[in-house]
Protein backbone atom coordinates (compact mmCIF):
# COMPACT_ATOMS: atom_id res chain seq x y z
CA UNK A 1 0.00 0.00 0.00
CA UNK A 2 1.22 3.45 -0.83
CA UNK A 3 0.88 6.28 1.66
CA UNK A 4 -1.95 7.63 -0.55
CA UNK A 5 -4.05 4.46 -0.10
CA UNK A 6 -6.73 4.42 2.56
CA UNK A 7 -8.71 1.37 3.66
CA UNK A 8 -12.38 1.94 4.31
CA UNK A 9 -13.74 -0.69 6.67
CA UNK A 10 -17.51 -0.78 6.25
CA UNK A 11 -19.47 -1.39 9.44
CA UNK A 12 -22.97 -0.56 8.15
CA UNK A 13 -24.42 -4.09 8.11
CA UNK A 14 -23.22 -4.67 11.69
CA UNK A 15 -22.71 -1.49 13.77
CA UNK A 16 -25.10 0.36 11.49
CA UNK A 17 -28.04 -1.99 11.87
CA UNK A 18 -27.51 -3.54 15.32
CA UNK A 19 -29.48 -0.86 17.17
CA UNK A 20 -32.35 -0.30 14.72
CA UNK A 21 -35.83 -0.80 16.12
CA UNK A 22 -37.33 -1.74 12.72
CA UNK A 23 -36.90 -5.46 11.97
CA UNK A 24 -34.79 -5.76 8.84
CA UNK A 25 -35.28 -8.87 6.70
CA UNK A 26 -32.15 -10.94 6.08
CA UNK A 27 -32.70 -10.49 2.34
CA UNK A 28 -32.52 -6.69 2.64
CA UNK A 29 -29.27 -7.01 4.59
CA UNK A 30 -27.81 -9.30 1.92
CA UNK A 31 -28.85 -6.87 -0.81
CA UNK A 32 -27.18 -4.05 1.15
CA UNK A 33 -23.94 -6.05 1.42
CA UNK A 34 -24.09 -6.80 -2.32
CA UNK A 35 -24.50 -3.10 -3.15
CA UNK A 36 -21.58 -2.22 -0.88
CA UNK A 37 -19.41 -4.72 -2.74
CA UNK A 38 -20.63 -3.29 -6.07
CA UNK A 39 -19.49 0.15 -4.88
CA UNK A 40 -15.95 -1.15 -4.38
CA UNK A 41 -15.80 -1.76 -0.65
CA UNK A 42 -13.36 -4.56 0.13
CA UNK A 43 -13.89 -4.96 3.88
CA UNK A 44 -17.49 -5.34 4.95
CA UNK A 45 -18.29 -6.31 8.53
CA UNK A 46 -21.26 -8.55 7.91
CA UNK A 47 -22.87 -9.39 11.26
CA UNK A 48 -22.28 -10.48 14.88
CA UNK A 49 -22.23 -13.93 16.45
CA UNK A 50 -23.30 -12.58 19.83
CA UNK A 51 -26.18 -13.50 22.10
CA UNK A 52 -29.45 -12.96 20.19
CA UNK A 53 -30.89 -11.63 23.44
CA UNK A 54 -28.19 -8.95 23.59
CA UNK A 55 -28.59 -7.90 19.93
CA UNK A 56 -31.90 -9.18 18.52
CA UNK A 57 -31.41 -7.28 15.27
CA UNK A 58 -28.49 -9.57 14.35
CA UNK A 59 -30.10 -12.82 15.51
CA UNK A 60 -30.14 -13.92 11.86
CA UNK A 61 -26.32 -14.06 11.67
CA UNK A 62 -26.19 -17.76 10.75
CA UNK A 63 -28.79 -17.37 7.99
CA UNK A 64 -27.13 -14.22 6.73
CA UNK A 65 -23.74 -15.89 6.39
CA UNK A 66 -25.34 -18.87 4.67
CA UNK A 67 -26.92 -16.55 2.11
CA UNK A 68 -23.87 -14.37 1.58
CA UNK A 69 -22.55 -14.12 -1.97
CA UNK A 70 -18.86 -14.05 -1.07
CA UNK A 71 -16.86 -12.29 -3.70
CA UNK A 72 -13.17 -12.82 -4.31
CA UNK A 73 -10.97 -10.15 -2.77
CA UNK A 74 -13.53 -9.07 -0.18
CA UNK A 75 -13.16 -9.68 3.54
CA UNK A 76 -16.37 -10.17 5.50
CA UNK A 77 -15.42 -10.02 9.20
CA UNK A 78 -17.94 -10.95 11.90
CA UNK A 79 -18.06 -9.95 15.56
CA UNK A 80 -17.33 -12.68 18.09
CA UNK A 81 -17.50 -12.17 21.89
CA UNK A 82 -16.57 -15.65 23.14
CA UNK A 83 -15.82 -19.25 22.15
CA UNK A 84 -19.48 -19.91 21.40
CA UNK A 85 -19.40 -17.07 18.88
CA UNK A 86 -16.21 -18.45 17.35
CA UNK A 87 -17.81 -21.87 16.88
CA UNK A 88 -20.79 -20.28 15.16
CA UNK A 89 -18.49 -18.17 12.97
CA UNK A 90 -16.49 -21.25 12.01
CA UNK A 91 -19.64 -23.21 11.13
CA UNK A 92 -20.78 -20.26 9.02
CA UNK A 93 -17.56 -20.27 7.02
CA UNK A 94 -16.14 -16.98 8.30
CA UNK A 95 -12.43 -16.31 7.92
CA UNK A 96 -12.11 -12.96 9.66
CA UNK A 97 -13.32 -12.00 13.13
CA UNK A 98 -13.44 -9.00 15.40
CA UNK A 99 -13.41 -9.28 19.17
CA UNK A 100 -14.54 -6.32 21.21
CA UNK A 101 -13.79 -4.79 24.55
CA UNK A 102 -13.41 -1.23 25.77
CA UNK A 103 -11.22 1.25 27.60
CA UNK A 104 -13.75 1.78 30.41
CA UNK A 105 -14.92 -0.87 32.88
CA UNK A 106 -18.53 0.33 33.15
CA UNK A 107 -19.18 0.12 29.41
CA UNK A 108 -17.47 -3.26 29.08
CA UNK A 109 -19.64 -4.61 31.88
CA UNK A 110 -22.84 -3.24 30.32
CA UNK A 111 -21.96 -4.40 26.82
CA UNK A 112 -20.51 -7.87 27.31
CA UNK A 113 -21.04 -8.56 31.02
CA UNK A 114 -17.30 -8.88 31.65
CA UNK A 115 -14.57 -6.75 33.16
CA UNK A 116 -11.87 -5.66 30.74
CA UNK A 117 -9.54 -8.28 32.23
CA UNK A 118 -12.20 -10.99 31.85
CA UNK A 119 -12.73 -9.98 28.23
CA UNK A 120 -9.02 -10.42 27.51
CA UNK A 121 -9.15 -13.86 29.15
CA UNK A 122 -12.22 -14.74 27.06
CA UNK A 123 -10.50 -13.65 23.84
CA UNK A 124 -7.28 -15.62 24.46
CA UNK A 125 -8.61 -19.03 23.30
CA UNK A 126 -10.73 -17.38 20.60
CA UNK A 127 -7.71 -15.66 19.06
CA UNK A 128 -5.50 -18.73 19.46
CA UNK A 129 -8.05 -20.78 17.51
CA UNK A 130 -8.44 -18.03 14.89
CA UNK A 131 -4.67 -17.97 14.42
CA UNK A 132 -4.61 -21.77 13.96
CA UNK A 133 -7.28 -21.38 11.30
CA UNK A 134 -5.28 -18.65 9.57
CA UNK A 135 -8.00 -16.06 10.07
CA UNK A 136 -7.57 -12.29 10.07
CA UNK A 137 -8.33 -10.75 13.46
CA UNK A 138 -9.31 -7.32 14.69
CA UNK A 139 -9.89 -6.00 18.21
CA UNK A 140 -12.20 -3.14 19.03
CA UNK A 141 -11.30 -0.78 21.84
CA UNK A 142 -14.60 1.01 22.46
CA UNK A 143 -15.13 4.14 24.57
CA UNK A 144 -11.54 5.25 23.89
CA UNK A 145 -12.62 8.88 23.84
CA UNK A 146 -15.31 8.85 26.51
CA UNK A 147 -17.67 6.50 28.30
CA UNK A 148 -21.44 6.93 28.60
CA UNK A 149 -21.25 5.80 32.23
CA UNK A 150 -17.83 6.95 33.49
CA UNK A 151 -17.19 10.12 31.48
CA UNK A 152 -13.68 11.05 30.34
CA UNK A 153 -11.33 8.18 29.53
CA UNK A 154 -7.59 8.69 29.84
CA UNK A 155 -5.24 7.59 27.08
CA UNK A 156 -3.37 5.32 29.51
CA UNK A 157 -6.48 3.14 29.77
CA UNK A 158 -6.66 2.92 25.96
CA UNK A 159 -2.98 1.99 25.71
CA UNK A 160 -3.40 -0.63 28.45
CA UNK A 161 -6.15 -2.56 26.71
CA UNK A 162 -4.59 -2.04 23.26
CA UNK A 163 -1.34 -3.61 24.48
CA UNK A 164 -3.24 -6.57 25.94
CA UNK A 165 -4.91 -7.18 22.56
CA UNK A 166 -1.61 -6.83 20.70
CA UNK A 167 -0.20 -9.37 23.16
CA UNK A 168 -2.92 -11.80 22.05
CA UNK A 169 -1.64 -11.52 18.48
CA UNK A 170 -4.40 -9.35 17.03
CA UNK A 171 -3.80 -8.08 13.47
CA UNK A 172 -5.55 -4.75 13.79
CA UNK A 173 -6.95 -2.50 16.50
CA UNK A 174 -10.00 -0.33 15.94
CA UNK A 175 -10.00 2.58 18.36
CA UNK A 176 -13.57 3.68 18.93
CA UNK A 177 -15.26 6.92 19.84
CA UNK A 178 -18.39 4.94 20.65
CA UNK A 179 -20.51 7.90 21.73
CA UNK A 180 -18.94 10.54 19.49
CA UNK A 181 -17.49 12.92 22.06
CA UNK A 182 -13.86 13.37 20.94
CA UNK A 183 -12.27 16.06 18.82
CA UNK A 184 -8.99 16.37 16.89
CA UNK A 185 -6.92 17.17 19.99
CA UNK A 186 -8.19 13.95 21.55
CA UNK A 187 -7.20 12.05 18.41
CA UNK A 188 -3.68 13.45 18.68
CA UNK A 189 -3.57 12.55 22.37
CA UNK A 190 -4.88 8.98 21.98
CA UNK A 191 -3.10 8.04 18.74
CA UNK A 192 0.06 9.72 20.03
CA UNK A 193 -0.05 7.62 23.21
CA UNK A 194 -0.66 4.40 21.26
CA UNK A 195 2.25 4.96 18.87
CA UNK A 196 4.51 6.13 21.72
CA UNK A 197 3.76 2.79 23.41
CA UNK A 198 5.24 1.02 20.39
CA UNK A 199 2.08 0.14 18.43
CA UNK A 200 2.70 0.90 14.76
CA UNK A 201 0.24 3.28 13.15
CA UNK A 202 -0.36 0.66 10.42
CA UNK A 203 -2.00 -1.55 13.06
CA UNK A 204 -4.57 1.14 13.88
CA UNK A 205 -8.01 1.84 12.50
CA UNK A 206 -10.16 4.68 13.81
CA UNK A 207 -13.86 4.23 14.50
CA UNK A 208 -15.70 7.52 14.83
CA UNK A 209 -19.34 8.20 15.57
CA UNK A 210 -20.63 11.52 14.33
CA UNK A 211 -22.88 12.25 17.30
CA UNK A 212 -21.59 15.80 17.68
CA UNK A 213 -20.35 16.44 14.16
CA UNK A 214 -16.64 15.92 14.87
CA UNK A 215 -16.08 12.69 12.93
CA UNK A 216 -14.60 14.15 9.73
CA UNK A 217 -12.40 16.58 11.66
CA UNK A 218 -11.16 13.57 13.60
CA UNK A 219 -10.46 11.65 10.39
CA UNK A 220 -8.46 14.59 9.11
CA UNK A 221 -6.43 14.67 12.29
CA UNK A 222 -5.81 10.91 12.17
CA UNK A 223 -4.75 11.09 8.51
CA UNK A 224 -2.09 13.63 9.46
CA UNK A 225 -0.84 11.21 12.11
CA UNK A 226 -0.48 8.49 9.46
CA UNK A 227 -3.60 6.42 10.15
CA UNK A 228 -4.80 4.79 6.92
CA UNK A 229 -7.84 2.74 7.96
CA UNK A 230 -11.24 4.16 8.90
CA UNK A 231 -14.49 2.52 9.93
CA UNK A 232 -17.63 3.98 8.43
CA UNK A 233 -21.28 3.10 7.88
CA UNK A 234 -23.03 3.68 4.57
CA UNK A 235 -26.14 5.73 5.20
CA UNK A 236 -24.71 6.95 8.52
CA UNK A 237 -26.66 4.48 10.65
CA UNK A 238 -25.26 3.13 13.86
CA UNK A 239 -25.17 3.00 17.60
CA UNK A 240 -25.07 0.50 20.38
CA UNK A 241 -27.95 -0.38 22.70
CA UNK A 242 -25.44 -0.42 25.58
CA UNK A 243 -24.08 3.04 24.73
CA UNK A 244 -26.86 5.48 25.53
CA UNK A 245 -26.43 8.69 23.60
CA UNK A 246 -24.51 7.19 20.71
CA UNK A 247 -25.72 8.37 17.32
CA UNK A 248 -24.72 7.22 13.87
CA UNK A 249 -21.31 6.17 12.67
CA UNK A 250 -19.36 8.40 10.39
CA UNK A 251 -21.16 7.96 7.04
CA UNK A 252 -19.09 6.14 4.42
CA UNK A 253 -20.32 8.56 1.73
CA UNK A 254 -19.11 11.57 3.76
CA UNK A 255 -15.75 9.85 4.31
CA UNK A 256 -15.39 8.98 0.62
CA UNK A 257 -16.05 12.57 -0.41
CA UNK A 258 -13.40 13.88 1.99
CA UNK A 259 -10.83 11.30 0.87
CA UNK A 260 -11.51 12.15 -2.78
CA UNK A 261 -10.91 15.84 -2.10
CA UNK A 262 -7.67 14.91 -0.33
CA UNK A 263 -6.55 13.01 -3.42
CA UNK A 264 -6.36 9.76 -1.46
CA UNK A 265 -7.24 6.45 -3.11
CA UNK A 266 -9.70 3.98 -1.62
CA UNK A 267 -11.38 2.13 -4.49
CA UNK A 268 -14.96 3.17 -3.71
CA UNK A 269 -17.24 4.76 -6.31
CA UNK A 270 -19.35 7.48 -4.71
CA UNK A 271 -22.36 7.21 -7.02
CA UNK A 272 -22.54 3.45 -6.55
CA UNK A 273 -22.15 3.92 -2.81
CA UNK A 274 -25.11 6.30 -2.76
CA UNK A 275 -27.23 3.54 -4.30
CA UNK A 276 -26.38 1.40 -1.26
CA UNK A 277 -27.04 4.34 1.09
CA UNK A 278 -30.50 4.91 -0.43
CA UNK A 279 -31.22 1.20 -0.17
CA UNK A 280 -30.52 1.16 3.56
CA UNK A 281 -32.51 4.37 4.16
CA UNK A 282 -35.41 2.92 2.17
CA UNK A 283 -35.27 -0.33 4.15
CA UNK A 284 -35.45 1.65 7.37
CA UNK A 285 -38.25 3.79 5.96
CA UNK A 286 -36.63 7.17 6.45
CA UNK A 287 -34.89 9.77 4.31
CA UNK A 288 -31.14 9.65 3.91
CA UNK A 289 -29.81 12.21 6.39
CA UNK A 290 -26.08 12.19 5.68
CA UNK A 291 -24.45 15.30 4.19
CA UNK A 292 -23.26 13.74 0.95
CA UNK A 293 -26.32 11.49 0.83
CA UNK A 294 -28.42 14.64 0.56
CA UNK A 295 -26.16 16.83 -1.56
CA UNK A 296 -24.63 14.11 -3.76
CA UNK A 297 -21.11 14.41 -5.12
CA UNK A 298 -20.08 17.74 -6.62
CA UNK A 299 -20.97 18.01 -10.28
CA UNK A 300 -19.52 21.06 -11.93
CA UNK A 301 -22.33 22.55 -14.06
N1 LIG B 1 -23.96 -16.67 20.40
C1 LIG B 1 -25.22 -17.03 20.72
N2 LIG B 1 -25.67 -17.13 21.99
C2 LIG B 1 -24.76 -16.90 22.96
C3 LIG B 1 -23.45 -16.54 22.70
C4 LIG B 1 -23.03 -16.41 21.35
N3 LIG B 1 -21.81 -16.05 21.01
N4 LIG B 1 -22.80 -16.36 23.86
C5 LIG B 1 -23.69 -16.61 24.83
N5 LIG B 1 -24.89 -16.94 24.29
C6 LIG B 1 -26.14 -17.24 24.98
C7 LIG B 1 -26.02 -18.32 26.03
O1 LIG B 1 -26.22 -19.57 25.46
C8 LIG B 1 -27.11 -17.95 26.99
O2 LIG B 1 -28.35 -18.32 26.47
P1 LIG B 1 -29.54 -18.79 27.42
O3 LIG B 1 -29.90 -17.61 28.28
O4 LIG B 1 -30.63 -19.15 26.47
O5 LIG B 1 -29.00 -19.94 28.21
C9 LIG B 1 -27.07 -16.43 26.99
O6 LIG B 1 -26.53 -16.08 25.71
C10 LIG B 1 -26.21 -15.85 28.09
O7 LIG B 1 -24.93 -16.45 28.03
P2 LIG B 1 -23.76 -16.16 29.07
O8 LIG B 1 -22.60 -17.00 28.71
O9 LIG B 1 -24.30 -16.24 30.47
O10 LIG B 1 -23.37 -14.69 28.70
P3 LIG B 1 -23.79 -13.30 29.33
O11 LIG B 1 -25.24 -13.22 29.70
O12 LIG B 1 -22.79 -12.96 30.37
O13 LIG B 1 -23.57 -12.37 28.04
C11 LIG B 1 -22.35 -11.96 25.99
C12 LIG B 1 -22.28 -12.20 27.48
C13 LIG B 1 -20.98 -11.49 25.56
C14 LIG B 1 -22.71 -13.27 25.31
C15 LIG B 1 -23.45 -10.91 25.69
O14 LIG B 1 -23.33 -9.82 26.57
C16 LIG B 1 -23.37 -10.39 24.27
O15 LIG B 1 -23.61 -11.13 23.32
N6 LIG B 1 -23.02 -9.10 24.09
C17 LIG B 1 -22.88 -8.52 22.77
C18 LIG B 1 -23.14 -7.06 22.82
C19 LIG B 1 -22.89 -6.42 21.48
O16 LIG B 1 -22.82 -7.05 20.45
N7 LIG B 1 -22.79 -5.09 21.50
C20 LIG B 1 -22.61 -4.31 20.32
C21 LIG B 1 -21.23 -4.33 19.79
S1 LIG B 1 -20.24 -3.02 20.46
ZN1 LIG C 1 -19.51 1.93 16.59
Q: Provide the low-confidence segments as ranges.
A: none
Helical run tally: 12
Question: How do the SSEs run, as a string of H and E?
Answer: EHHEHEHEHHEHEHEHEHHH
Mean pLDDT: 97
Looking across the biggest beta sheet, what order are the strands in? 1-8-7-6-5-4-3-2
Shape: globular
Strand content: 5-15%
Report on the architecture of this protein.
Strand 6, helix 8 and strand 7 (about 205-210) form a beta-alpha-beta unit. Strands 1-8-7-6-5-4-3-2 form an eight-stranded parallel beta sheet. Helix 2 packs antiparallel against helix 11 and helix 10 packs antiparallel against helix 11 (about 270-285). The protein has helices at about 10-15, 25-40, 60-65, 85-90, 105-110, 115-135, 155-165, 185-195, 215-225, 250-260, 270-285, 290-295; strands at about 5-10, 45-50, 80, 95-100, 135-140, 170-175, 205-210, 230. The chain is built from twelve helices and eight strands. It starts with 6 loop residues before the first strand and ends in a 6-residue tail after the last helix. With about 300 residues, the chain is an alpha/beta fold. It is globular and about 55 Å long. Helix content is about 40%, strand content about 10%. The site of zinc ion (ZN) has 7 residues, from loops.
Amino acid sequence: MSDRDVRIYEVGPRDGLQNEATPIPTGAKLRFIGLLADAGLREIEATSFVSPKAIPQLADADALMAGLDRRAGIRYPVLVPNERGLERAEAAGADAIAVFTAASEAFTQANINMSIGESIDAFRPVLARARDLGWWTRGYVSTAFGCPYQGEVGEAAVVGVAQELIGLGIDELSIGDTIGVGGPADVRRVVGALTASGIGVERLAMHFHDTRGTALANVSSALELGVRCFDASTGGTGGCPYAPGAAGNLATEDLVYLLDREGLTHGVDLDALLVAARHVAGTLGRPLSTKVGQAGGWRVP
